[in-house]
Amino acid sequence: MNEASDSRVGTFRRQLEKIILDKHEDTMSKMGAILASGILDAGALAFSPTAFIGLNYDLKVPKFEFISNAKPSLFEYPKPTTVPTMASAVKLPTAVLSTSVKAKARAKKEAEQKASLEKAAGAESSPAATKCWKRKSI
């Protein structure tokens, strides 16, 4: 069916398309909308006569002339649905995990401690001062 045969078809088809394209819609609702749009499309093609077939007594196809006064828009295929494309390419900030922040802070702290120990060891050149304790990391 199309809008030429019934004016309510267009609004119903747009409602089905909205349900199909909405990513927050329930899966069963989308499935029902897809089936409904298929049945709506089939109603224009398969459930109404769209072909004229005939045979003669020898089971051969005779030459036919068929004139239809109906508008061609009555037999048009429905327009395919298209997914709307987003033209704006917004660069979002990269997510920083709390574990990576903690690891960087820990590494910075250890580097500062190591630098301060080396500085203290350089100031005092006694053998007792050069002893360095390392913290065991897990």
Automatic annotation (TrEMBL):
Domain 26S proteasome regulatory subunit RPN2 C-terminal positions: 50-119
Pfam families, A to Z: RPN2_C
Cellular component annotations (GO), alphabetically ordered: nucleus; proteasome regulatory particle, base subcomplex; proteasome storage granule
Superkingdom as given in the UniProt entry: Eukaryota
Entry annotated with the keyword Cytoplasm: no
Keywords carried by this UniProt record: Repeat
GO biological process: proteasome-mediated ubiquitin-dependent protein catabolic process
Region (Disordered): 112-138
Protein name: 26S proteasome regulatory subunit RPN2 C-terminal domain-containing protein
Higher taxonomy: Eukaryota, Viridiplantae, Streptophyta, Embryophyta, Tracheophyta
